[in-house]
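Narrative summary of target 7.
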Amino acid sequence: MAVGDGDNVTSGANEEVCHVTITEDFASSTGDSVINKHSGEDSGHEKLLRKTASIDGKAIPHNRASRPPHYFYFALIVTLCCNFPFGAIAIIFSLLSKRSGRKGNLKDAELWGNVSKWLSIVGIAVALVVVAFLIVYYVHIDKNIVDTPEELYTDEG
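Modeled conformation, tokenized:
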């Protein structure tokens, strides 16, 4: 089976026209690996597949460099639930990561994403330490604080 430039694919001897639709796994409705579709506008993905088909009509898989994670939602949750100052700064760094990833600068996108992630983690840790301190203070320490001078001289035991 040969791949044509148009919407139709023709076989060598029969000159039959074959209309197929591309699916996510590059298989047609008949089970053949093909690259053309029969009608409508081609998406960018289908154009890319048509241009990079091998001679036998099977698609060559593409390994695009994926963008590193930006941790925006993690930073947003930390901002809203745990620690506003650390979370707000983490959101700024996650947006920098997103912007660098869109521009294609994957090294900076990974750097800013990691900064955002660690700021969020530190924000959660600081919030947990503060909550733990407040619990210990109000449960244990506050009972033992002397409020008036008379309490110093009373003998409870």
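Strands lie at 9-10, 17-18.
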